[in-house]
Design brief:
The complex is a heterodimer of chains A (about 350) and B (about 325). Chain A is α/β, with parallel strands linked by helices. In chain A, about 65% of the residues lie in helices and about 10% in strands. The longest helix of chain A is centred in the middle third of the chain and has 32 residues. Chain A is elongated, with a radius of gyration of 25 Å. In chain B, the strands form 3 sheets. Chain B has a 6-stranded mixed sheet, sandwiched between helices. Classes of the chains: A alpha/beta (about 350), B alpha/beta (about 325).
């Protein structure tokens, strides 16, 4: 080994790296992002889970119990509701993760102790929330004695607590994000790198034709991927689709469009395919960590939650878990559909604006 | 506008300028390019040929100057212009992972050729540019000459009125170059205006008219013949035994613009005032030489023009 040549190569690499500003930035940016996300945003010991209570008893004891629940810090009580049906509705729509019923005969149950006095309904589509809710089983009840299981925790939507039921719907989001953003991020850059772009922009082709023409084939590819995950989920892991299949596809379609628009936008920002890949990874990280796929949204600090709101995956995770696991309809989750549509349109318009039919 | 009677100019440019930061790539160029001709841009690398072509087809916005191409104001009407021009980029810019046929079909659609017209037209250009044998071959696997024919076929598919070619022959063998130029003249005969940039003298010589660019400035233009005739009695062929010493001595003189060794003789481009006696006086003491006056060629024109330009610049 000749050290002069070795150092020549090392020096060349460093020089090239220094001139590739984006890559240089990513060297610092990716670990910073990862550290901040894991350090601040991700919290498995979640507290303040959105909760609603139906207090049908309206007694001193029931108010005591509510105060005790609040004191645990596990739940964040939303405005009270009056019927268990309303509770079920809020759960299905994803507005709350925990619903608690204090039955009319609360006092009687506390006295006789033949049945649990408190019923806790948990949205089982998120495992971490599930686990946190189980802590509630241990809260002290007025006049509590040993051997009385006063709190009944009911796991909604995933009673057997099987992991694939939680994971598979979200996995559709992960797979679509990973592949589609990557594919389209490379799309325009590749044309530019290979010199095709100079030929294309000298023709009557318009920026809209160019972006849509690049994006639309991948819509079909995305829908095929959705089908594959759904089929495997059903056949191998028995993951249910409790809502309407057509609504699963409708949500996926919007999500696919949002991802493709994001990819195209990255493609207008990157100057090489390598940069495009890095940008794709850079936006993939927060999506997978903040969207609620891996870690519960409820456990994140407000700042992380705001960021999560602008990520397409957050809305898709809510939609897909709602439709597939809780049997919700699109009408129950209009804000998430709207958010996805806005993200898709805004990103596509920005990308198209960024495509100049000029070289300067 | 374009059907304005008496407008036989395909391109009219006044004060065309392009700056990249502090670099002036194209510096106040005036052009009047007649229709139906092969017009050459001759100049070394970095002289502004590509930049000028890109501005003329609307890909680059001029920093200053007025440009009218095919009667359209550029850059304002660049999009309308793009329907009527063909542009063959310096680097091969078709899709290497598509076949010859697929590339041409794609271009036909991009240029809005009606469906019924597209297929016969694609066949027509494949016949004309001898691509039938490669129709199913990936463009990336073609030879240099085949690629160039494909690129030309692709850029004339929509029968543009103006064809701009940026150093089209830099990657092909001499025979392909000859055939390629035959194709260009055929297009010109059919009424197409062609703008070809090159740094080859022999190619420049074939053009109907020529503009010589040097450091972004237009230093001479006219027909190749007129350009050569503008240098009467200034090119000498000098035969001597000591060519290298003679060359060094001649180069040292202000009155000599250029010396090139050709075999055993020296081709000398001199200032207008220098005669044979003057030339002999410049040679090293006692050097015997046979001197004759010869007709100027384009290379001499080029050297003379760039010399003047550099002197002006300095």
């Amino acid at each position: 080994m000749n050290t002069t040549r070795l150092f020549a190569i090392i020096l060349k690499e460093l020089r090239q790296l220094r001139r590739d500003r984006l890559t240089f930035g990513m060297i610092l940016g990716i670990p910073t992002l990862q550290l901040l996300l894991f350090g601040y945003a991700i919290n498995l010991d979640i507290r303040h889970i959105d909760t609603a209570i139906v207090d049908q008893a309206q007694t001193v004891h029931s108010r005591e119990i509510i105060a005790a629940l609040d004191a645990t810090g596990v739940v964040r009580l939303k405005s009270p509701v009056s019927t268990p049906e309303q509770l079920g509705d809020l759960l299905r729509k994803g507005r709350i993760n925990i619903g608690i019923v204090l039955p009319r005969d609360l006092e009687h149950r506390l006295e006789i102790r033949d049945r649990p006095a408190l019923q806790v309904m948990v949205d089982g589509s998120d495992q971490t929330v599930q686990a946190a809710a189980r802590q509630l089983a241990a809260i002290p009840l007025p006049g509590m004695r040993a051997n009385y299981q006063g709190v009944e925790v009911v796991n909604f939507y995933n009673p057997e607590r099987r992991a694939p039921v939680n994971t598979v719907p979200g996995l559709i989001g992960v797979i679509l994000t990973m592949t589609l953003v990557m594919f389209t991020a490379i799309a325009l850059v590749r044309e530019r790198e290979r010199g095709n772009m100079e030929m294309l922009i000298a023709t009557p082709v318009s920026p809209w034709e160019l972006t849509l023409g690049k994006v639309l084939p991948f819509v079909a590819i995305g829908l095929v991927q959705v089908t594959v995950v759904l089929l495997l989920g059903k056949l191998v892991f028995s993951v249910p689709v409790r809502g309407l299949l057509i609504e699963v596809y409708a949500a996926a379609l919007l999500f696919i469009m949002a991802n493709l628009s994001l990819g195209i936008l990255l493609s207008t920002l990157a100057r090489s395919q390598f940069q495009a890949m890095q940008l794709a990874f850079f936006v993939f990280l927060p999506q997978i960590l903040l969207s609620g796929f891996m870690f519960p949204y409820a456990g994140m600090p407000p700042a992380a939650q705001w960021i999560a709101e602008v990520l397409p995956m957050t809305h898709f995770i809510r939609l897909i878990r709602g439709i597939m696991l809780r049997g919700a309809g699109l009408a129950d989750l209009p804000m998430d559909m709207l958010a996805l549509a806005i993200i898709a349109v805004v990103l596509l318009v920005i990308s198209t604006r960024r495509i100049s039919k000029r070289l300067d | 506008m374009d059907d304005n009677p008496g407008s036989d100019l395909a391109i009219r440019a006044h004060g065309l300028t392009r700056r990249f930061g502090t670099l002036v790539a194209v510096d106040h160029i005036d052009l009047s390019i007649p229709r139906g001709q092969v017009y050459g841009f001759l100049g070394p690398n970095g002289s502004g040929k590509s930049t000028t072509l890109r501005m003329l087809c609307g890909l680059l916005t001029p920093s200053a100057g007025d440009v009218e191409v095919l009667g359209l104001r550029i850059p304002a009407e660049a999009e309308a212009l793009k329907r009527r021009i063909g542009y063959m980029t310096q680097k091969f810019s078709l899709y290497e992972d598509l076949t010859v046929l697929e590339n041409l079909q794609f271009l036909a659609a991009i240029h809005d050729l009606p469906r019924a017209r597209a297929a016969p037209r694609v066949q027509e250009v494949m016949d004309r540019y001898d691509l039938n044998g490669q129709r199913k071959q990936l463009a990336g696997t073609l030879s240099g000459g085949q690629r160039q024919r494909l690129a030309l076929a692709g850029s004339v598919l929509h029968e543009p009125e103006l064809l701009l070619l940026d150093e089209p022959t830099s990657a092909v063998d001499p025979e392909s170059r000859r055939n390629f130029w035959a194709s260009l003249f055929e297009l010109a005969d059919a009424g197409t205006t062609l703008l070809v940039s090159t740094h080859y003298m022999d190619e420049a010589e074939r053009c109907h008219r020529l503009a010589i660019l040097e450091s972004g400035r237009l230093v001479a233009d006219g027909t190749p013949q007129a350009l050569c005739e503008a240098l009467p009695g200034r090119v000498w062929l000098l035969q001597t035994a000591q060519t290298r010493m003679a060359e060094a001595a001649l180069r040292a003189s202000n009155e000599v613009l250029g010396v090139a060794q050709i075999g055993n003789s020296l081709r000398v481009l001199a200032e207008p005032g220098l005669d044979e006696t003057g030339l002999r006086r410049l040679l090293p003491d006692g050097a015997a030489a046979r001197i004759e006056i010869v007709a100027a060629n384009l290379e001499d024109v080029f050297v003379a023009a760039t010399h003047i330009a550099r002197k002006d610049a300095a």
